[in-house]
Design a protein that fits this description.
- The protein has two domains: 5-16 and 87-217, HAD superfamily/HAD-like (Rossmann fold), CATH 3.40.50.1000; 18-82, DNA polymerase, domain 1 (Orthogonal Bundle).
- With 219 residues, it is of the alpha/beta class.
- α6 links the parallel β4 and β5 (133-135).
- Helices cover 42% and strands 13% of the residues.
- α3 (50-60) crosses α4 (68-82).
- The strands form two sheets. The chain has a six-stranded parallel β-sheet with strand order 5-4-1-6-7-8, sandwiched between helices. Strands 2-3 form a two-stranded antiparallel sheet.
Length: 219
């Protein structure tokens, strides 16, 4: 069945946000007396939501704050002030979204980033108008890789799994798609943790210019 709905991950898929995330992580660490992490160290920590990012950063510096929630709040305080300082859409994103929309394909975002800041980032980058639905890590009682996130989006669009496609950049996205029986397209420019060839997908793309033709070719 040809895709009628394409669902996108955010960080590492639509946007390159690692530099701003790393800056906020390091500002949070400094507040707890920790040394900064390099961008290369932070990149593989991204993808499982704020709580996991903070936990991994604290663990990397051997820090155990008495109130882990305080660390998350401190991170979000910094991140909200800098979320689009260096964050940019990956090359070709806007043109690909335009082409998919012209093909009457519904578009959605499904990310583990909180919904409000996701909406703010999409708005700031001029991408918000392309998406009929944005699901963040706090939009539902569950998050990726729980397949119920994707299943909830499919239900909203009245789309069968066979008519949907998830575009993402990581093992988390691949696991979510597989559990929901949704086809998965891997963007190789993202924040994966292991070797790219180990991530199951129907296609692995170097960039967004290749995406519209791939979607049209899928049956």
């Amino acid at each position: 069945m040809s895709p009628a709905l394409v669902i996108f991950d955010l960080d590492g898929t639509l946007i390159d946000s690692a530099a701003d995330l790393a800056a906020a992580v390091n500002a949070m660490l400094a507040g707890f007396g920790g040394q900064p992490l390099s961008l290369a160290q932070v990149r593989p920590m991204i993808g499982d939501g704020v709580a996991m990012l903070i936990a991994r950063a604290l663990a990397a510096r051997g820090l155990e704050p008495a109130d882990p929630e305080a660390a998350s709040r401190e991170f979000m305080r910094h991140y909200q002030s800098m979320a689009t300082s260096r964050t940019r859409a990956f090359p070709g994103v806007r043109a690909a979204l335009e082409a998919l929309r012209a093909d009457a394909i519904a578009l959605a975002v499904c990310t583990n980033k909180p919904e409000r800041i996701t909406q703010d980032i999409l708005q700031s980058l001029g991408l918000a108008g392309y998406f009929a639905r944005v699901v963040g890590g706090d939009s539902l009682p569950f998050r990726k890789p729980d397949p119920r996130v994707l299943l909830a989006v499919l239900q909203e669009f009245a789309a069968p799994a066979a008519a949907a496609l998830l575009v993402g950049d990581s093992e988390v996205d691949a696991a979510t798609a597989r559990a929901a029986d949704v086809r998965f397209v891997l963007m190789r420019h993202g924040y994966h943790r292991g070797p790219l060839e180990a991530i199951p997908c129907v296609a692995s793309l170097a960039g967004f210019p290749q995406l519209p033709a791939l979607v049209r070719a899928l049956v």
